Amino acid sequence: MAVARECVRAQVAFYASTRNYRIILDTHGWGETAVRLNKKAAQGAWNTMAQEITDEMLEVFAVEGTPEAIPDKLQAKYDGILDRITFYHPFQPGEHVERWRQFARAFNG
């Protein structure tokens, strides 16, 4: 979980470094973080960008939990807001088939 969390932190930093996404960070009062990330990206300082993403930011932009807990957490956070989701998770055909079926059942009834 800790390794996955840091990968998500780096991914959020990458997206947040794009000027067009600054408005999203501004909405939460984190606009200056977007400015710092944009500068780091322009300098090629990719390895230090994740440090700009706080745990509070991760809580807003990601859903964290065990595979069994994720469907309920996603529904609690996004019910009535989203009509589809995409997992940023490596998918290999044939791997974790039952887990993916559980996710599908949780969302499709």
Describe the structure.
With 109 residues, the chain is mainly alpha-helical. It has two domains: 60 residues, no CATH class; 39 residues, no CATH class. Helix 6 runs parallel beside helix 7. The radius of gyration is 16 Å and the shape is globular. The protein starts with a helix and ends with a helix.
Biggest beta-sheet profile:
none
Oligomeric grouping of the chains: single chain
Strand content: under 5%
Question: How many discrete structural domains?
Answer: 2
Radius of gyration, taken over Cα atoms and rounded to an integer in Å = 16 Å
* Number of separate strands: 0
The 3D shape can be described as: globular
H/I helix tally: 7
Span between N and C termini? 28 Å
Give the low-pLDDT segments: none
Q: Roughly what percent helix? A: 55-70%
* Structural classification: mainly alpha
Describe, in short, the structure shown.
The chain is mainly α and 109 residues long.
Task: Explain the layout of strands and helices.
Blueprint: H1 2-16, H2 22-27, H3 31-43, H4 46-49, H5 55-61, H6 70-78, H7 97-108
